Task: structure prediction
Amino acid sequence: MILRLKNLIVVGLWLLATHTAVQAHQQKEAYITLLFNERSSLIEVSHRFSLHDVQHGLKSLLGIQEDLATNSVAQGQLVKYIEESFVLTDDSQNVLKFNLVGHEVDGKYFWVYQERPIPDTASVTVKDTALFETWPSQINYINIEKSAWVRSARLNKETPSKTISLID
Amino acid sequence: MAELRRNQFYTDNEIGYTISDVVGANGEPLEYIISGAQMRLDLPVALESGESFEYSLNYAYNILEENAVAARSGYEHFPDDVRKGGNDIFLLAQWFPRVASYSDYEAWHNKEFLGRGEFTLEFGNYDVNITVPYDHIVASTGELQNPDEALTSVQRQRLKKAEDAKRPVFIVTAGEALANERDGTNKSKTWNFKAENVRDFAWASSRKFMWDAKGHHQKDSEQPLVMAMSYYPKEGGDLWKKYSTESVIHAMDVYSRFTFDYPYPVSISVNGPVGGMEYPMITFNGPRTNWHEDGSRTYPLSEKRFLLGVVIHEVGHNYFPMIVNSDERQWTWMDEGLNSFLDGIAGREWDPKIPWGVEPNDVINYMKSDVQVPVMTQSDSVLKLGPNAYTKPAVALNILRETILGRELFDFAFKEYSERWMNKRPTPADFFRTMEEASGVDLDWFWQGWFYTTDHVDISVDKVYKLRLDTLDPDVDFKRRRQENADKPGSIFDQRNRTEGKKLWVDLNKDVSDFYDRNDHFTATNKERNKYRQMLEDLDPRERAAFERAVKEDKNYYVLNFSNVGGLVMPIILDLNFKNGKTETHYIPAEIWRRSPSKVSKMIITDKGQELVSVEVDPRWETADVDVENNNYPRLIIPTRIEAFKKKDKAEDKKHPENRDIMHDSKTEREAPKKKVRKK
Result:
């Protein structure tokens, strides 16, 4: 067996398989938290995107090259895009509308905030397609947080939505 | 659209290697088979240890258009350049078939490249001739062997001057690069590079490149001079002129301090279509400037941060895994995680005001989710490399250094690991073992929690009890019990009766009373006094002294109950806040959880006047605790992120200097205010 192994040379030809390459340092991920705030009876949605990711994503997506850290028009377009990319439905397939609370740049992140009253539903289906058309490798992490637990979804282009039970 | 473009590129172009003429040293054909991205070559005779075998093969492939297929190398076309037909930047990596690794823990490494974990390679020596158009500038792994042929005498003089320059010196200036990209040529030139003991070889070529260089001096080193160099087109602009080469040097400065001296003669940063990618001595980095209609170029702040971060990170890969040759196909975190940890140090030593994304707080959204795999997962099965292989291990090491081991122990151990495994192939166990051996600290619990599980940190302080040492003297202890009883709120019935002026039977009939009306149930008796005295008499002198001292000091005994909600075992860092305004920080080592990983209690003893009023777990957010709501006793109402946002003064936020694009806005012409039309 050992002799047989020594009898070979294995050569890697991995140029052939570069089509799904992920470049070092580009992470392409967003975190969307749906917090069930029992104090206020609201669902609070916080969308966290890497500022650098959305700056580049929007350049290819909407032709925006203004500095997102400062340009309010560009920020507004991004907020609209992020709002439209996010859809939450209840267990009867009704779309749950959210109010926009605002947005901010905090450090290396771009945040968008939404809220609405906690609905009477046993589950929600969350869909978020933000930046999927820009980067096939984009992942949008969803954390649904209630006081007793966190349940998550990992949305990507192949699986852009997931139903999550809200039953404790 | 990107997917359409990629598919169309694959349809229109032949991709992959063409292999031919696989022969031995004497030209005899060799048996081989190609299976996917792997090729097996059958040797005529088995090799014994120490023997070698020489073979050659011809190969060819079409260079990929990087922007179409998102590969780690390829070309970028610039159709808008003045020159007819435009120009290109070529980044060449994975451009030749490489021999697979053979290790003592896996034998031949047969993991085919699936697009994720990059490469597992052996060290080798390279002698490469690169023939390119005459006006191209070539950046490459290795040392240029024929500068007299490849470079002009002016360029050679400039390179010499750059060796001791304070700031980068242009070898090819912006004007010269512009002239090159405008004119073109039909002639060609060959550049010869040699590199020894490297695990890969990459290069870049373009007529668009300007080129700057600055010498990096390493005192008492086998490699006393390293030329830090950058190659970039006009699209890189001032961003590259100012910061690329300086970032290269800063990275070597910091990394060498934590590991070993940079061992190669050059360290290169090339701007091209690849966002960020590393090879021995050469890195590809993507940041660019934005062109404006007035012909100027500016860049957003995020792009500046990207350049600093990506250059430091990719140069850092020279140390991990180019020299400490870990296996990225199997354990991506061993280079990306260690490198992200160090780029976080280098970044914060550049400017701590820039958010580098390696603080414990940066990983909590990922760690609290239930869609993770452990850091130790094989590269292709990791769900998302960014948080799993980069951020989480980087944050873990940051915590290990700053909170658990301390800088002195950590830095010594990390350097020991780097030096011990330089030019060798470590596995995770080698890293874990070396960090423990060299620090002298058992860290099994730490590796287990952070690298082998998907648990997160969430330590809750559930309850705090105050206890007081009984004196056992019945006169003292019963008096205390009486007072404790009196301090309790009385019966609401009794209070209301008193308020209404109800007369009590006992008050109205004082002539009828007995022993119990004169002595409550806290009254001490001689029976108890005798027992107390006998107890004192029976103590030996040392016991009695200890007992009497404790009674005299009358300290406060607090029992703190904690639960480990997240499952990841960590030290408990506590701020104890006292009534007198003082705060004490306590560090309870992680070993407190060793027999009871879910719930533990800790007794804290304070002096009589040191009365505890509140307790906070992880007050400086050092441990990546995902839920701060249960970190305080008594509990606090902590606003959610959105509640806090609503309270913010937005106007104040806009005044933040960092949020102004002064580079672009400063070009705005002064205007007189527009007159407001008012109703009359």
User: Anything to note?
Assistant: Chain B has a mean pLDDT of 93. Chain B is about 35% helix and 25% strand.
